[in-house]
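Why predict the complex rather than its parts? Because the way molecules touch one another can change local conformation, and only a joint prediction can capture that. The input here totals 610 residues.
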Amino acid sequence: MSVIYERVALIGLGLIAGSMARAMRRGGLAKEIVGTSRSAETRETARDIGFCDRVVDTAEDAVIEADLVVLAVPVGAMGGVARRIGPNLMRSATVTDVGSVKRHVIEQVRPFIPQHVHFIPGHPLAGTEQSGPRSGFASLFENRWCLLIPDEGTDPDALRRLRSLWEAMGANVDEMEADHHDLVLAVTSHAPHLIAYTMVGVADDLKRVTDTEVVNYSAAGFRDFTRIAASDPTMWRDVFLANRGATLEVLGRFTEELFALQRAIRTGDGDRLFDYFKRTRAIRRGIIEAGQDTKAPDFGRVDAV
Amino acid sequence: MSVIYERVALIGLGLIAGSMARAMRRGGLAKEIVGTSRSAETRETARDIGFCDRVVDTAEDAVIEADLVVLAVPVGAMGGVARRIGPNLMRSATVTDVGSVKRHVIEQVRPFIPQHVHFIPGHPLAGTEQSGPRSGFASLFENRWCLLIPDEGTDPDALRRLRSLWEAMGANVDEMEADHHDLVLAVTSHAPHLIAYTMVGVADDLKRVTDTEVVNYSAAGFRDFTRIAASDPTMWRDVFLANRGATLEVLGRFTEELFALQRAIRTGDGDRLFDYFKRTRAIRRGIIEAGQDTKAPDFGRVDAV
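Output of the joint prediction:
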């Protein structure tokens, strides 16, 4: 319980910012939390819930005298926010972001950050399919990873301080280079999301199968895809456009592989299918051992019955 | 609590048969449950756990004087089992199965079922990524759907009796035509499984991303794919080979759609992406309202933190 920042400005009040506010308050990590959102409705909701000390109307106002500014808006909106807040940033403040793509955000934001301000991009690998100011909760980051993207010019003290904030919110922190981050996330998150969206769209389109059938008989596999495909459309549109190169590269590998398996099905090559399916089990085991998921069957839905 | 069958023979002692045994015992639905498995090790485990009244060494022996015989082996093994048990089936017994594909199973099994025996294929849409005799539990079928596949020659009394067994185990029962079943399941289960297997395989293959990175940073999307891809490889190999036509048709639609979205990413067509992603949310809502999943964010993993 020790204050790490005097005044934290949260730009954007969705799942991530709302969870940060709750986690910082729980840990007494910020003396004051100021929040803002482009949407008047979101600001009103945030005021009602009260997870910020103050909700102000503009990003320009929110950052005044803040020693930490968190950009928590969709990736495509980061540059515009940076342009507006740049002139108001306090000397020696740290600006970070929580976007799912890093190279694009750096390119869009860096030009507007004054010399006397630290810019350290970040990405907490945590979330649910829910969005909006009501969706946050204090434990979202516990035992999840947060990736920070320093470069050769990054101030070590500013980096240490930001790292300690994430650790105090329960996260494991790692550092990564921006392009590598974008490739890793294309594999572990962006391509899987596009694939899930696509499969759910196909099911919706297939006229010979009714929506009721899709809904009722979705017990296995598809049901998990629909959860992924329920995520915030604006956020994901921006992610795919901003991480175009890596996403298309991974999708290219994916379709190549999928065609090979389709061919194995068509030609009845059972051995090839079996070997492929057997190999993927090991990865699942690794994820469970790393504490990034539950060992409970069916995500623990079973215990809930 | 009323006996529906005198003696139930379970051929195969994996997740589904093990759960049926436990559910039937809990409800007092069968006077005696006889089980068998091809594997001596599985039979030994089942004897240790004791979820059957008797475990016998062969399918031929298991079906003797059974009034219900449940084929709960991988889809590719159904025909061989039917050939062996056919001569030993009791007059007026009912044979059913729990395979994920119906047309292929009917073609493989029906020739070996004597005239005086009822054959009513079935498919409980329930399961987890776990397999083997230790993985079953009595509540697996509660509020899940079980599809039965009668035809014009099906005896109404035998059908009613089988339906009442599934209902007594907690399932909702519906009837469906075999080919339509195979198409519906290709959409809601088979294609999603192949896609998940493929994506996990691609992640494992991509040399520039380490396995540790895949494992640690799998918080969103990919983690759900690995659960699906942890399912039993033998079972799934057989499903794809047995439901070749419908699976390839759905995968064809899927790749067509995926190419269109890839193109939208490449050309920067954000509106197209946004509209697509927005549409898929409605399906998710339907599944939650139909009681086929939890409304809790992140499958309720959140509450477990």
